[in-house]
Amino acid sequence: xxxxxxxxxxxxxxxxxxxxxxxxxxxxxxxxxxxxxxxxxxxxxxxxxxxxxxxxxxxxxxxxxxxxxxxxxxxxxxxxxxxxxxxxxxxxxxxxxxxxxxxxxxxxxxxxxxxxxxxxxxxxxxxxxxxxxxxxxxxxxxxxxxxxxxxxxxxxxxxxxxxxxxxxxxxxxxxxxxxxxxxxxxxxxxxxxxxxxxxxxxxxxxxxxxxxxxxxxxxxxxxxxxxxxxxxxxxx
Length: 236
Hints:
It comes from Planktotalea frisia. It holds the Pfam family GATase. This is Gamma-glutamyl-L-1-hydroxyisopropylamide hydrolase. It is an enzyme of class 3 (hydrolase). With 236 residues, the chain is of the alpha/beta class. It has a single domain, classed as 3-Layer(aba) Sandwich (Rossmann fold). It is built from 7 helices and 11 strands. The protein has a 9-stranded mixed β-sheet with strand order 2-1-3-4-11-10-9-6-7, sandwiched between helices. A two-stranded antiparallel ribbon has the order 5-8. A hairpin with a 7-residue loop joins strand 9 (158-162) and strand 10. The two termini are 12 Å apart. 42% of the residues are buried. The mean pLDDT is 96.
């Protein structure tokens, strides 16, 4: 399996330089469950895009502090590429920003999350069972860091999971699209560091709630298996 990771993370701070880039994080997640798969990263936020997306069996789109409504040229180019990938029936997985970008590109809506910031460990209930998620518990835990959310789905999309703080934490379109609003690629150590970095910049109480949530660890490996089975389902 050959996967392309489209990196959208615009954070170039000192904090970001002390930690692995998202391409490495997603490759590590894939290799945790499918060590033989090949993963190639493209920093699309720096306008580095694949020359031939058809060379890949699947695409993963990362998270970012950027907004899908930003007017930077790379954002428009990414949305166009998402539509191209979808038309070519190449399976796409999107996390956080990727989840929102896929929704927006295909006709959905993204707005400020009505419940505000979701930060730390978030628990989602599975509301529709699909084959590749059959081993995922309900509720399942993921690391989260977002203040925008998908509020309307593209045509043909179905909600996969929900939470108290976010009405759509995942959706799918047949076996072509699979998304999560959260961050399956983040480690417990990285999320803990992210909380300490961002807590002083966020509304009062958000950081303390995020710290308290970290008593629980995310279902990283099980969710990673779901991602792998999604790509495998498309191949069968």
